[in-house]
Structures are given as C-alpha cells and as structure tokens.
From TrEMBL, chain C:
Keyword Membrane: yes
Top-rank lineage group of the source organism: Bacteria
Name assigned to this protein: Uncharacterized protein
Record keywords, A-Z: Membrane, Transmembrane, Transmembrane helix
Organism whose genome encodes this protein: Brevibacillus centrosporus
Transmembrane intervals: 6-21, 33-53
Length: 372, 520, 72
C-alpha cells in the first residue's frame, strides 16, 4: 500500500461532501437557474440520482477489488494495456479537473474580492498550501475536512437573516413548462455529483469499511439537501432573475443587513468558502498524485507531489484560458464529460468485471465437476 | 574541544569514563589503596572531605562526603560517635554489627568505586573500612532546598497551592501523596555525561498504554548529552516534530495537574533540578486547559473554556484581521465604524501593516523586558510601556487608537492561555499571519489558517494526534473538550492509544434527591 | 516578458528538484526517473504559451459539441 494512513468512514463522507459542494455551491445555482427558472429547487434531486448511481458503481467495484483504487483494478479488469490506458484517462481527468478547479477558484476570488491581485499569485499560493496537505497524506486531509465541514456550513445559519427579503410567491407557477426545464437544469449538478467517484480512491483507506457506502450516500444526500436549500433561498430572494447572475449566492448574501451592523457578509462567506475549496483542491490533487504513483508503480507517492503540483499549476492556465471558456466548459462539456469518465466508464468496468467473475466461477464449477 | 561537539564526545567518551567514572572497578581490601584512588579522582575538589579515623581505636576507617551535601551533625552523632567511642572487640567484623551500632535507616552496601563516586555525588557519605571489600553508603544527605511554594506561572483561585520544587525527591513525594496506589510506578534513570541528572518516568500501571511507556523509555535512552539542566532539554530531545512551533509535550509546575494527567493514562517525566515536569502525550486542547477547570462548577468552566478558545483564536488572527480590513476590505466594516477608524488613522504616517508590526514587536519587547527585569525596576517598565503603547503614542500621531486597542486585546488574549510556553508559540505565529494579511488580505489570513490547521492535523505527540479528540473526532471525549462535563458524567477515560482500562468511575453517579442527595 | 516566465519556471523546476532530492536519494531508481521526467515534461510544457494553445478543455469541448445542443 502506498498510503499508510487510514481515515474513518465519516471523514470520507465529509471529504466527498466538500469535494462536490465546495465549488458547486457557488456556480451551480446560477447555471441551474438559467434552465430551470423557478423550478430550480427540483434539479438537485434529479442530480442526486447520478450521485447515487456513481456511489453504487464505485462501491460494487470496491467490493470486488478491495484495497485497490480504480487505477489499479482497471488493469485487472480489462488487461494490462487497456487497463493502463483507462488508468491514464482517470489520472488525466483528475489532473485536468484539479487545474480547472484551482483556476475557477482563483477567477472567483479575483473577480469578486481582490481585483488588483494578479491571478497567478492566487493560484500559486493555493497550490502551495494544498501541496503541504497532500504531502502530509490522506489522514491529514481527512482531519482537515472534518474540521472545516462544520465551519463550511456556518453561512447556512445566515439564511434566516434574510427572511424579510424573501418572497414565497416566486415559487409559483410550479412546473409551468413540465419537468423538462428542471431536468435540463439537473445536468450540470449531475456532472458535479458524478465526482462522487473520488470514492474509489478513498475507500481502500477507510478504517471501518462496513460504513463506507452509507457515509458516501449520506454525502450525496447532504449535497442534495444543501443545493436544494440554497436554490430555494436564492429563488425566494432573487426571484426570476436568478439566471442572470453568475454567482447568485454571493448576490443573495449581499442583501444581508441586520441592525446596519452585520452587513456585507459576503466577505465572510468567501473566507469560509476558501476552506471548502482548499479541501476540494487537495482531494483532487491527492487523488491525482495517488493515482499517478500507482500507475507508475512508485514506492512512495510523496515523490510525485511536487511534480504534479507543477502540472496542476500549468493546467490551471492551459485548461482554463479565460473566464468565458471556463464557463462554457462548465455548462456544455462537463455535464457529459464528468459522468462519462466517472460513471459510464466505471459502469463498463463493473460489467466486464462481473462477467469475468461469473466466467471464473463457472470455470471453477466445470473443473470441479470434471474432477468428480 | 573545538569542532563538532558530537565527534568530540565520541572521541573522548572512553577517556572521560575512565577519568571520571571508574567503571566497575571493585574496591580493594587495603583502605590506603582505596583512599589513594579516590583522592586522585577528586584532585582539586575542595568540597570533598576525606575524614580518616580508627574504629574502636584499632581498625582504620575513612568517611568521604561532600561539604554541604551531607548532614554533618547527624553523621557526627550517629556514625562517628558510636564507632570512635565504643569499646574495642573483634565482634564488629560480623555482617550486621555495624547496622546495630549505627542507627540509620537508609543504608546501602556498595562494592565498586563507581558506586562510591555516585553515592558521594548524591550527597550520601561513604564509609570505607580497612580489610573490607565493600563500603557503606550512609543515607544522610541534606542540602539547602526551596520550600514547597505556590507556582508563580500557573496560579489558581481554587485548587491546591503546592508547586514542584527543584528537588526530585520532594517532587516524587508530592505525587505519591496524591496517588497512593502501588500501581503508580516511578522508573529512575540517569542522563547526562557530566551532570548525571536523575530522570524519573512515572505512570500508573493499568491505566497507561504499555507501548507508550516503551516508546518514552526508548526515546530517553537515545539521549547522549553532556548535561540536562532543565526539562526543556528532554522535551526538545524526545518530541515528535522538533521543527514545529507548538509544544508537543506539556510542562507544568503543579502536582495536581500531573496527577490528573496520570489518571488519564498519560506519562510524566520528572527531572532533577527543575520544578517543571513534562507530560506526554499532549494535545492542543490540554494546553488550553487549566487545572482549575476541574475544580470549578462545570458550567463556569465550560464558559471559561470557550472564552479561552475564542481569545486564543483572537491572539492568532486579530492583528492580521485588522490589517486586512484596513488595507483591503473596507466594505466589511460597518460604515460608521469605518469612518471613525479612518479619522483616527488620518495622521498616522505608516501603512496598516507597518503600524501593526511596530506595535506588536514593541509589545513583545515590553513583555520580555518585564519578565527579565529585576522587580524593583518593573514599575519603570510599566510606566514607559503604558506610554509607548497608549495615549502618548496616539497623541504623537505615530499610531492610531484602534491599533492600540487591537494590540492590547491581543496581548491580554495571549495571556489567557494557561500554559505560558504555549502562549508564546501562538503569539509568534501572528507575525507571519500579519504579513500574509498585509499582502493578500482576507485570502492571506485564510491561507495562513489553513496552513496552521494542516500543520496541527499532521502533528502527533508520542503518536497521539495533536488535535484529538476533534480531529480525528471522538464524540465520547468532547465532554472534556468542548465543554467541561460535570464529574458524574465523565465516565470514560480519554482514549490515547489503545484502550487500557476505559472506565474511570461508576456510571450513574448523578446526585439528586433520590440518589445520595438529601432525600427529605 | 516570455523570458521572465521561462526563467522563473526554470528556477521553480530547480528548486523543486533541489528540495525533493535529499529524500529521493533513498528511493529506488525508478522513482527518481519518474520524478525527473515529470518535472522535465512540466518544464517543457511551461515554455509554451499555454493559455493560447488548444488544451485538454478545447479537446473535450470539441468532443462533446454534439451533446451541447441539448442545452442550447
């Protein structure tokens, strides 16, 4: 085993939750709102299906090949050459995504808060901090996720402060154009929820295996609940114009003003959001490093942390040349790309693995019969 | 003696041992020969006294002791008097005759020169007798020591007033008085090539995880050093992560703190010559707990703990938060407050970061000067300090009034940490935080916080995670971290490593009218 | 301007190697090889004008263009 640390199932659940929701909570509602309009609260529930299916697939595969990550077992499932190719695809996918996530984090910070800071500084500092965490191993990432998880949920407590800005009327007319808009709006969060496949890299290191699946499902439920709640909240505050905003959550939080003292909470929200993004980036970064070191059959994954960090930095410029391309990718490519790599490809692996196992047991039965 | 000290030690190790510690040289029969060897060893040692006399006027004998370490009055009355004034017969050569004549309880027969030297150095006079191959170490050590006093650095309002002293025997007796079970073990060893400092590892058998004791012992036996003058030496030589700013081993002057920790299955290390006892494994939260938390009412303790956590966080981020708000995030400050802050900053010539740095460094300087200065000059420092960090500085237009408030709050906050040493490390960290805040604003602060948290999460003290029971989470133990649960609820012991005896007390001890209370 | 980037990337690569080498020394030969070649590849990549040449995102976008119509 390359990684000697162990995490608990609940830590894994919190890691998955933050990995999916940290970036999602800012960008998903706006995109969903664009398609689903006032039915946007329904979309995360459709998207949860994608998350559940992905968790189920990853867990089934894990049960067949315990103590192995998807990079390792794909070689066993489809043979050495094809397996290496699939493994490379996984690693490249997560490397690409790490770079992409770092860049979208940096874009968000620069656009909303530090207008004059060069984006490369924001990127490099974040990668530096994540490098530190990834070098420390999965145990430390798990513990930080656990510590930041309750902090990340603090902004939810601010929502009641906006009660007098909310109008329940915005909810109606419900399902004006049928279910289609809400399903269309679910495509983007669905892509995000397919990131639950990170599970396949974390499960081998979970101490209490028997709780692994349920805590991953709790993570899916948590993500769905949070997204639904946030969607309701911004719908009630902003009404039909949700689709016009890139980051409606930040806009909604700007409305907060209690006694003319608790104002402009968005800086606080941003500060807390950085914690979540840190966990998300560290997990993606870590998975890339772990996958790559397993792919190369290294003796220690820590040797790869710095080179991969270098790559993540480069990819943050290469895979995200400017804000519009990034947004386009988020809306038009990732909802298909993400599930393809993280749900469909594993499903394909699962089917082959199941067929193989069946063939094997039949063979065994046959040989056993012959011996009789 | 120049060059690499370690190499020097290695090269001279053999020679030094021959010169200073005659390793397992048996004593000779001839007393004159023994005396000669010991006198060469103690050449130019004016404090070592050799007193020759005749037992019953016939047999030559010699008593050796260090002036000031031995109890001379007792020795004269109980050793020399009976031996010199007694009537001569040959009976005294039998084994237990001397024990009959000399009425002293602490009595040890020693056979080698090495033991002789050790005994003399520890203050026990050594009696050598002609035609005998063994000497007698007489337990009459006595030297000047400080009385048991209230510890200065860890005051409490409610709780025992005793503190450890510099003498290790007094310290062990203080512990033994509180924990009377024979399961309280004290393993003794000596460390230090020259100082031969006595180190005692103490723990309660059955409560401590045996692997922890083995680990501590193996770490201690790795130490090869000239001298141990304070437990800080040991601390730095056995901790898990030497480059971390956070102390991974707790040091305390209070016997009740040590006993409380022993009862939780930890290990204490006593070092002769210092009142500071080390406790390991330690977590961040035990650094933030005072012994008084356990003696006060639980509700009050919980509130005080939260206050402490809050101000610890404040002492870490408050100055940097101020810098970030002033420099980058005006919108976060309510308008009216912003206006008053801006008007007070109008005359200040420095940017906020420089202003904060100057003030914080000045504060640290004043604090350090206050600790080092003789008491008589202390008042002067106080007055000057109040002028520097205060009204005069503000009126001179050098700093703004809000900055003074921030520095004052930070200073007070950092002194809320019950363990002074831990307070220093957290205070130090605020300087890099201020730099981060001055360059990247709130983002910099968050990055600094993340780095600190990642570092804390990766720290371990003797293998126990430094942030436990919060990260990794152990819900059971939050009762003594987030809150201070009343004693009748603290049924389980914290789980450090392994689970040696998890039960602390009988369950269901909640007092009440029907349960032990006044049921009238 | 470009020269500044090249220089800083070279410095970065050297610093990374210098930082990791003492630990890497004890590792098997293969680990060193992978480490060095990855750094080399990354350094080479950094010489290109990355934001303005087609990257993985462009590739994925062209790949999924037919599906994008669903969301138009």
């Amino acid at each position: 085993m390359l990684e000697k640390g162990k995490i608990s199932a609940s830590q894994m659940g919190m890691m998955l939750f933050l990995a999916v929701v940290a970036s999602g909570v800012m960008s998903i509602p706006g995109i969903t709102g664009k398609y689903a309009h006032n039915d946007l609260w329904l979309s995360p529930i459709w998207a949860a299906l994608m998350g559940t299916v992905t968790v189920w697939i990853a867990h089934r595969l894990h049960c067949m090949y315990p103590e192995k990550t998807s990079v390792q077992y794909s070689e066993e499932v489809v043979g050495k050459v094809a397996g290496k190719a699939i493994g490379f695809l996984f690693i490249f996918f997560y490397l690409h995504l790490s770079g992409f996530v770092v860049r979208s984090y940096a874009e968000f910070i620069v656009q909303n808060f530090l207008h004059k800071t060069p984006i490369s500084v924001v990127i490099i500092t974040m990668i530096f901090v994540c490098t530190w965490a990834v070098r420390a191993g999965i145990e430390v990432i798990g513990r930080t996720a656990q510590l930041f998880f309750p902090v990340f949920l603090i902004p939810v407590l601010f929502i009641p402060l906006l009660l007098n800005n909310m109008k329940l009327d915005y909810l109606f007319p419900m399902l004006e154009h049928g279910l289609v808009p809400s399903i269309k709006g679910a495509l983007v969060p669905g892509g995000w929820l397919s990131e639950m496949f990170l599970l396949s890299f974390l499960l081998p290191y979970v101490r209490n295996q028997e709780k692994g699946k349920s805590s991953a499902l709790y993570a899916v439920i948590g993500v769905t609940l949070l997204l639904t709640m946030i969607n309701f909240f911004i719908l009630f505050v902003l009404g039909k114009q949700i689709g016009d905003f890139l980051f409606p959550v930040m806009v909604a939080f700007r409305y907060i003003s209690v006694a003319e003292f608790f104002e402009n909470m968005e800086s606080l929200v941003m500060a807390i959001w950085i914690l979540g993004m840190f966990v998300k980036i560290s997990i993606f970064y870590y998975v890339t490093v772990l996958g790559a070191s397993q792919w190369f059959r290294m003796s220690d994954y820590r040797s790869l942390v710095l080179p991969i960090g270098f790559f993540v930095g480069l990819f943050s410029f290469w895979s995200f040349p400017n804000f519009n391309t990034g947004l386009y990718f988020d809306i038009y490519a990732f909802p298909f790309y993400g599930p393809l790599i993280q749900t469909v490809l594993p499903l394909f692996l699962l089917i082959i693995a199941a067929l193989r196992k069946k063939g094997q047991s039949q063979n065994q039965n046959l040989t056993a019969a012959k011996h009789k | 003696m120049s060059g690499n000290p370690r190499k020097w030690w290695k090269a001279n190790k053999g020679r030094m041992q021959q010169k200073h510690v005659p390793s397992h040289t048996p004593l000779e029969k001839n007393i004159a020969r023994n005396e000669e060897i010991l006198r060469t060893l103690y050449t130019n040692c004016s404090d070592v006294v050799f007193r020759s006399f005749l037992i019953f006027g016939t047999t030559p004998a010699l008593i050796i002791y260090i002036d000031g370490l031995a109890n001379i009055e007792e020795m004269d009355a109980r050793v020399l008097a009976p031996l010199m004034q007694g009537r001569g017969n040959t009976e005294w050569r039998t084994e237990d005759f001397l024990q009959k004549v000399i009425p002293i309880s602490k009595w040890q027969e020693i056979c080698s020169l090495e033991e002789c030297v050790e005994s003399i150095a520890s203050g026990y006079p050594v009696l050598l007798i002609d035609q005998q191959e063994k000497a007698i170490s007489i337990g009459l050590a006595k030297w000047e020591k400080r009385n048991v006093e209230e510890p200065v650095a860890e005051g409490v309002v409610r709780g025992p007033r005793e503190g450890f002293t510099e003498s290790i025997t007094v310290n062990t007796s203080l512990l033994r008085r509180l924990i009377k079970t024979p399961a309280l073990k004290m393993e003794r060893r000596e460390i230090g090539g020259y100082t031969k400092t006595c180190i005692i590892v103490t723990y309660i058998e059955g409560l401590v995880e045996p692997s922890l004791v083995t680990e501590v012992n193996s770490r201690l036996s790795r130490i090869e050093i000239d001298g141990i003058l304070e437990s800080g030496y040991i601390e730095e030589l056995i901790e898990d992560q030497p480059s971390s700013p956070f102390p991974q081993i707790l040091s305390t002057e209070r016997p009740d703190v040590v006993c409380g920790n022993l009862l939780e299955g930890r290990i204490a290390i006593l070092v002769d010559g210092t009142p500071f006892v080390l406790i390991a494994p330690t977590t961040l939260f035990s650094l933030l707990q005072s012994s008084e938390d356990y003696y006060q009412r639980s509700l009050a303790s919980t509130a005080i703990r939260w206050l402490r956590y809050f101000f610890t966080a404040m002492s870490f981020v408050l100055p940097s938060l101020y810098v970030a708000l002033i420099t980058y995030h005006h919108e976060m400050v309510p308008t009216s407050l912003l206006i008053s802050m801006a008007s007070s900053r109008e005359a200040v010539p420095f940017p906020a970061l420089v202003e904060a740095m100057i003030m914080e460094v000045t504060f640290e300087a004043l604090r350090e000067a206050g600790v080092r200065l003789p008491k008589q000059v202390g008042a002067a420092v106080n007055i000057v300090g109040a002028l520097v960090i205060g009204q005069a500085a503000v009126q001179a237009g050098l700093v703004s009034a809000p900055m003074v408030i921030v520095v004052a709050i930070t200073g007070i906050a950092s002194f809320m940490i019950p363990h002074y040493i831990a307070g220093i490390s957290i205070r130090l960290l605020r300087f890099p935080m201020m730099l981060l805040a001055g360059t990247l604003g709130l983002l910099g602060i968050m990055l600094g916080v993340i780095m600190a948290v990642v570092h804390l999460c990766s720290l371990r003290s003797l293998g126990v995670p430094y942030l436990s029971p919060v990260g990794p989470l152990r819900v059971q133990e939050l009762k003594d971290t987030l809150v201070r649960a009343p004693w009748w609820m603290m049924d389980t012991r914290p789980k450090l490593l392994g689970e040696a005896n998890p039960h602390r007390q009988a369950p269901g001890m909640k007092p009440g009218p029907s349960n032990g209370g006044d049921a009238t | 301007m470009r020269w500044g980037v090249v220089l800083s990337m070279t410095v970065l690569a050297v610093v990374l190697i210098g930082y990791e080498w003492p630990r890497l020394k004890k590792q098997p030969r293969k680990d060193k090889l992978v480490f060095l070649s990855l750094i080399l590849i990354a350094w080479t990549l950094s010489l290109f004008d990355l934001p303005n040449i087609p990257g993985p995102t462009t590739m994925v976008q062209t790949l999924f263009k037919p599906f994008a119509i669903l969301l138009e």
